[in-house]
Known about the structure:
mainly alpha
Amino acid sequence: VYEKNYPKILGKFLEKMILILYDDT
């Protein structure tokens, strides 16, 4: 079950990191 949820958590983390990186102009 955790292995199936891992990609979702990773995707959300990456999305937040990308948003922070793009917002750091």
